[in-house]
Specification:
By secondary structure, this protein is mainly β. The chain has one domain (about 5-260): Neuraminidase, CATH 2.120.10. It has three helices and 26 strands. Strands 22, 23, 24, 25 and 26 form a five-stranded antiparallel sheet that branches. The protein has a four-stranded antiparallel sheet with strand order 4-5-6-7, with no helix packed on it. A four-stranded antiparallel sheet has the order 8-9-12-13, with no helix packed on it. It is globular, with a radius of gyration of 20 Å. The structure holds fe (ii) ion.
Length: about 350
């Protein structure tokens, strides 16, 4: 949601489509989409800063400089757009941000360069090359060169959050143990089974003073598609709501709440034959704490051949749903989802910003 509209984007880049969030009616492509289309347009996973209302986005393509970073203000004007040059075509999926920086990436999983030169697309993983992270100044920060940090080789589909801590930038996301499964990829969906690539919640720290990277695993379980209270994006968070991966396919068995300060975790499992989607956190209007609100998910029930929306108390997931809303028809087992407050659904509503 940005500038009062839903924004539909594609992970291999394209035009940003505006939709009425209530009716899903097409409302056109934003004018700035034309400006960035020669560079690929906009990738999936742009982010909206909860303090400024700015849309932070990136794109990538097979033409040099291969990647760009941009910002669109809350009135839908492109106000910042810079190249972030890469050594060649890459396949970044997601981005993250802090108060002053956007974080983009160059992972060693990308198109095989020799085959690409012949017009063929095949993924290659270079376990002998580092992961690289770009720290890009946001428009509100002093403008300077993009800073690059090396880290151990991996691939990351999704980030959880990032923030600044002293001279360090802290980044949380889902590190893959084996980005290229043994035997390579197949086209049967089994490739996406979490046991094949082993995503776990992980922390990277980039020290702007020393140029050093430190990294550590935060949890041993196979998790992905994490959410936090979106009012805390770019700031330190305490609680995350992570999807528990189902072995063998791209499905989720449940939600795990992780307390990053206290260390405790609790979970809710959807039950046999029931699979959830990414589960956003919906904070209460008068929230008294970060976890004062609800976690919302779409569950597809293969036993009953129907789907429902479930609402869980964010502080007590294990209790099970406090509300279930049966949907009029079955939907595909979900992947991404987002939560928007009703006040965000109209372009006539001025964005006033929110504070944790
Ligand atoms: Fe994604």
């Amino acid at each position: 949601m940005h500038a009062g509209r839903a924004l539909a984007t594609f992970y291999q880049c394209g035009e940003p489509y505006r939709l009425d969030a209530r009716t899903l009616e097409f409302r056109g492509t934003s004018a700035w989409g034309e400006r960035v289309l020669p560079d690929g347009g906009i990738s999936a996973h742009p982010k909206v800063c909860p303090r400024t209302g700015d849309l932070l986005f990136f794109n990538y393509s097979k033409q040099a400089p291969y990647m760009h970073y941009g910002e669109v203000d809350r009135h839908d004007n492109l106000v910042h757009y810079v190249p972030v040059p890469l050594p060649g075509p890459r396949l970044p999926h997601d981005m993250c941000f802090t108060e002053h920086f956007a974080i983009l990436n160059d992972f060693p999983l990308h198109w095989d360069e020799a085959l690409l030169a012949r017009g063929k697309h095949k993924l290659a993983y270079h376990a002998d090359r580092p992961s690289r992270f770009a720290i890009v100044p946001r428009r509100n920060a002093p403008q300077g060169a993009v800073r690059w940090f090396d880290a151990s080789p991996t691939y990351v589909l999704h980030w959880l959050n990032a923030w600044e801590e002293g001279t360090e930038i802290v980044l949380h996301g889902y590190h893959q143990a084996t980005p290229m499964p043994r035997g390579g990829y197949d086209n049967k969906g089994a490739t996406l089974g979490p046991e094949r690539y082993g995503p776990t919640l992980y922390e990277w720290r980039f020290d702007l003073a020393t140029g050093r990277t430190t990294e550590r695993r935060l949890d041993e379980r196979l998790l992905e598609f994490g959410m936090i209270n979106a009012r805390y994006w770019g700031q330190p968070h305490r609680y995350s709501y992570n999807m528990i991966a189902h072995p063998g396919s791209f499905l989720f068995d449940g939600i795990l709440r992780h307390d990053h300060v206290g260390g405790a975790s609790q979970q809710y499992l959807f039950g046999a034959g029931r699979f959830g989607s990414e589960s956003p956190m919906a904070p209460c209007h008068d929230a008294s704490s970060e976890d004062d609100g609800y976690v919302v998910s779409f569950v597809t029930d293969l036993n009953e051949d129907r789907s429902e929306c479930i609402v869980l108390d964010a502080r007590d997931l294990a209790r099970g749903p406090v509300a279930r809303i049966l949907l009029p028809h079955r939907i595909s087992s979900g992947t991404h989802a987002c939560w928007a407050d009703a006040s965000e659904l109209s372009p006539a509503t001025a964005f006033e910003g929110t504070q944790p």
